[in-house]
Specification:
There is one protein chain. With about 625 residues, the chain is α+β, with helices and mostly antiparallel strands. A seven-stranded mixed beta sheet has the order 4-7-2-1-10-13-12, with no helix packed on it. A hairpin with a 4-residue loop joins strand 12 (about 230-235) and strand 13 (about 240-250). Helix 2 runs antiparallel to helix 14 and helix 7 packs across helix 8 (about 375-395). The protein starts with a helix and ends in an 8-residue tail after the last helix.
Length: about 625
Amino acid sequence: MSQSKSTTSAPLRFIPGKFILCLASLLIIANVTLAQTPTPTPSPAARRASARPFPPPQYIPPHDYDQRNIKLEFRFDWEKEQAIGIETITLAPTVKDLKRVDFDAAFMTVASAKLAKGGPLKFDYDGTKEKLSITLDRAYQPNEEITIVISYHTNKPPAERTALIGGGGLNFILPRADDPTRRKQVWSQGEAEANHFWFACFDHPNDFVTTEIVATVEKPFSVISNGKLISTKENSDGTRTFDWKIDVPHATYLTSIVVGEFAPVVGEYAGIPVLTYVYPNELEEGKVTASRLPEMVKFFSEQTGVKYPYAKYAQTTVRDFGGGMENISATTQTDNMIHDARAELDGTSDSLESHELAHQWFGDYVTCRNWSDIWLNESFATYFQAMWDEHHLGHDDFLYSDVKSNQEQYFTAWARGLRRPIVTRHYANPDAVFDTYAYPRGGAVLHMLRTYLGEDNWWRSINHYLTKYAHQPVETAQFRIAIEETTGQPMDWFFDEWVYKMGHPVFRVIQDYDAQNKQLILKVRQEQKPDPDSQYPQAGFFQTPVDIQIATAANTRVERVQIEPKEEQTFKFTVDSEPLLVGFDYGGTLIKELTFVKTTGQLLYQLGTIRTSWGASGPCHN
């Protein structure tokens, strides 16, 4: 899911590309290599004023069955904003003598429940608890399957229950008095737990299911959903019935439906259709907007070593949707992403498109088992979107517009008092974890992990993680173990301080030169303090590798040293002459605050080095 473009991508850039890179280099000097100004710490009074109650721990709710398949058959009452449905759900007990099943179900009117092969079943629907309880005809055992048919219709939820990205559950878009040409549409939004607003299920991400959606709509409407279009039937009453089916198990929140008038922008990758459904009058603009989508599918397939795993990839633009949602094989996008060729010169929708596409691997192919681990979905999509930028726009753009931007968004949240570990069970509700830590902070941590592991180990670990846990719900520990199994390197220290604890190092670096022994001496001090107002676990002293750039008149080199979890360390480097440039954390990889005071001469040399590196025709040439 994309909360907004500012959350998952850099802002649009409206200045010439070469000037951007020069500006990026200068700002990296000022903010990363030289002296990062420590993030302002709120005063005790300000902290107390903004302090929030410590949320209770959240756990996966119990259920005593395994969902196997859900088939939904729909027609729609536009005037009442209702879906009239028949749900056929197949499940298997996970306990002995199962006599009752409880489903998540909200804002429904249930007419009946029965066995697919048998008689009617007693049921109780509690709208307050959002539960549908069905009493079975006998006790069932774990080696049996049960198929239940539920007849019902949906009801419009109150606004306070749909305050998600664009609205949770099933949304009807209709003409209004102030907008009479408004397009009629129906679209769903399931993440985090809103798909039980339109069909009964266990609406949590740890129980995967296959699905089929059969929907009948008036012409000229079309239906787009998950998986493969099995058939389109023309009916005598002027309607059409679309049958979509996906045989790949997935979390229930990834099930989706979109109804409306659309024209497809058609592409393909390795025989897989790559489709963008847009409004018929925006077909040419849609071709411009989605022109790089097949290349993105190719890039993620080849880099991960896992070919795009579904029958098709589609993204469908809809009205009043707040961003993007990675429904499995059928992303829903805001119609604001469409632009023409002139707008393409100023900025693209690549960040949104690549973010949601990356989710097809990270969030759909493997899915966080609990919302505590949402970074396995969102941070990965954030960082893989950044790697698309690196592939398409170059490494400098990637460092400035993605790596640096992700770090800055985190520091902004930290300064506001929004502080927590990336992974924690303590959150108010599932929607509360879709924040800075799930997106840019986690993306910044993944960049550190990639840098630490190196390219070969990083990509082999990613492939092993995806391959081993394909079509399964996962937890963060399984990602760590996949890295350890691939590389042989223990990673518990990294995850402990960067993922399970909150905070970041605050470094003070002092540089000296021993002329007699021709040694550069760096004294590195960690000055971070615990937040006294937080109950979350906090990192104390950090251990981390860090790259040091050393430039003398004769040569430039980069050396990696290991920061130990202690207050102060001294590093000595043999050099041929007094260094002209010393960079701490070359490339700006670490999430850190840094004070590294340098002389005016050292600063001017460093600036001159950047200018010289571009050459006489480079962007900084006057």
